[in-house]
Amino acid sequence: MEPALGQWLEATLPVIRARRHRSVLVLAGPADWGRAIAKEVAAYRQDAGLWVGDADPEPGMYQCSGAQARQWLGRNLSMIVWDSHSGTHPAGLGAVSGALVGGGLLVWLVPPLVDWSEGPDPDYDRLRHHAPPYRFLARMARLLGQAAGQPPNALVTPDSAFLEPPAPPAVARQAPRGPTDDQQRAIEAVMAMGAAAEPAPVVLRADRGRGKSAALGMAATRLVNEYGTRVCVTAARPSALDSFWHFVPEECRDGVMFVAPDELLRQAPEADVLMVDEAATLPLPMLAAMTARWPGAVLATTVHGYEGTGRGFDLRFRAVLDRNHPGWDRVMLDEPIRWAPDDPLEMLMNRLLCLDADLPEITSSGEPVAYRVVSQNELLTDDGLLKAVMGLLVSAHYQTSPDDLRQLLDDPETVIVAALQGDAPVGVVWGLHEGGLDAELARSVWLGERRPRGHLVAQSLAFQGGDPEAARRRYLRVTRIAVHPDRRRQGIGQELLAEMERVAIAGGVDVLATSFGATPALMAFWRVAGFRFLRLGTKRDAASGTHAAMLGRPLNHEGTELCRSQAERFAAHWPWLLPVLKGLEPEVQAAVEAMMPAPPAWEPGMLSDDDWREIEAFVKGARELEVTRLPLATLASLVPSGVAAWSDGERQLWQRAVTGGADWEALRQEGLVAGRRPGLKRLRSLARSLVEEWSESGV
């Protein structure tokens, strides 16, 4: 280590600890050079340290990949080494930075800043297409270079260094001892809810590092001690509750239980109060069910966080609470606990990853709204526009993350259309080009042999929809659409889609498509926009808790034929799918059926080309039973001699699994299968025997 760097560390670390600031040391140069220096710097850490990257860390440090970095949220680290030579995972970086406590140092290894945008960056392989120069990295290099040139940060390269220590404070700042005023207000709100005869939910909102989890732990302890309350706590990741459990003493833990979110509603444990940490990471339908089961619920959520989820959660879940629990309370925690209010690293991360992106401010002027394509280069050069666009996306889609920021800037298939009132965007639609696969790849997708990244609609319609030609069609998929809350119900969303359609037609696209969590309101919106229903997912989406609906607006003859055949085929399957969708909300079922066309007339004694394709895919192991029952039942009815040759057990299995629509658990309990995998193997073998019988009969 150069003496100047050692002197800077010895001068700077005591100062940032006294100020409760966090700083970043940027090592910009070759990978081996930066890693060697980082190992020497790591010896200066006070407590636990984490090395994020695939190189060997300094002994005694924890290590993880960028994708695993989220698991460290809620921990306390005094030093983090982030090795961008191993890849820059945007969401992981945003998450793990929140684990660095006041007085901590982020050691960031990057290529030379002027070369960073040229790559390579291994994490970009998560995108389907990418090529340098990378705008996301160019923006990060520019902002990081600016920040590293100001104390308490530092920048070191093989040829130069900026190493100016910060001035020491007049008085050292002390970490809060006991609850802050904000935490005390939160605890009292929870206690009042716990004592109420008819409790209503309490929502704790804060930016990162404000002590939400600690406040939950302190409130749980008081509830147990003072009221004998039975408390249940849940979170998407148990490790996120480390801070919570720190404030629940051992003698109180018999009154506090942890149940994972997916088990919570199935088990319905006996509890008086439910606490949900990082509620914005859970599907809104799941949260609605939790608060319906436990009106005495406390939900803590991050407003501007590593996922950028809090604002969208607040806007969307507020409507659920207003409707179902009008007496609900909200407490905002503003004062940071893990670091000082003027922490330089928090400001830097917010800017780098747009974590503090809010809805743009708009005036009530009568200026007309203009609609136009916004280029990715324009977003790169106009940071205000970029943050406004991200603010709109975050407000409408609570799962928006820093990964989306990178894709928005660097996916070459991106199309962005904005609605601008003056200079302020009041709406935005984001589309991605898909499909157009060659015949060989399309067939592999249909058979489930290939799953090319970034072709959601093309892949689903070919594989689930049973038509390899669907993967050859060209799509522009609307992945996000958002309108400012103050400008909704003014036709802006429909005009955005109309402009996107013009872009699609000019680009030779066959279908303007979309996929979203099905709700009656969203189905109605897309129906008004001229989109046709194509299919509904049989499983609930892990993020939204809803079934994914896929819709399309045909733009030419090929697109019209595709949408017609897909919709009619799904309509024919619909009665056979309803047993699988037994938990589907009645209002969603009604909305789907209102958009669904009548199935084509069935010709007795005939198997269509669609039937044969689906049977072939099922026999080859490329198609699930649930979406193949219709042609399998038809095939069995046309080859009675083949069914007669089966054993009694085989006929019973076929009748229950195919004709009767029994699920795998029911089949297992009835002793017909040992499990899903061996059951599918037997059914595929039986179907193959029917196909062979059909071929031999010459029908």
Automatic annotation (TrEMBL):
PROSITE patterns: GNAT
GO molecular function: 18S rRNA cytidine N-acetyltransferase activity; ATP binding; tRNA binding; tRNA cytidine N4-acetyltransferase activity
Enzyme kind, highest EC tier: transferase
CDD domains hit by this protein: NAT_SF
Keyword hit for Transferase: yes
Annotated catalysed reactions: cytidine(34) in elongator tRNA(Met) + acetyl-CoA + ATP + H2O = N(4)-acetylcytidine(34) in elongator tRNA(Met) + ADP + phosphate + CoA + H(+)
Listed GO biological process terms: rRNA acetylation involved in maturation of SSU-rRNA; tRNA acetylation; tRNA wobble cytosine modification
EC number: 2.3.1.193
Residues spanning the signal sequence: none
Domain N-acetyltransferase: 369-556
InterPro entries documented for this protein: Acyl_CoA_acyltransferase (IPR016181), GNAT_dom (IPR000182), P-loop_NTPase (IPR027417), TcmA/NAT10_helicase (IPR007807), TmcA/NAT10/Kre33 (IPR032672), TmcA/NAT10_N (IPR013562), TmcA_C_sf (IPR038321), tRNA_acetyltr_TmcA (IPR024914)
UniProt keyword Heme present: no
Pfam families listed in its UniProt record: GNAT_acetyltr_2, NAT10_TcmA_helicase, TmcA_N
Annotated binding of acetyl-CoA, by residue: I481, A482, V483
Residues involved in ATP binding: Q183, R338
GO terms for cellular component: cytoplasm
Intracellular or extracellular location(s): Cytoplasm
Major site of localization recorded for this protein: cytoplasm
Keyword set, alphabetical order: Acyltransferase, ATP-binding, Cytoplasm, Nucleotide-binding, RNA-binding, Transferase, tRNA processing, tRNA-binding
Family per similarity comment: Belongs to the TmcA family.
Functional summary from the UniProt entry: Catalyzes the formation of N(4)-acetylcytidine (ac(4)C) at the wobble position of tRNA(Met), by using acetyl-CoA as an acetyl donor and ATP (or GTP).
Matching HAMAP family: tRNA_acetyltr_TmcA
Name of the featured protein: tRNA(Met) cytidine acetyltransferase TmcA
Organism of provenance: Halovibrio salipaludis
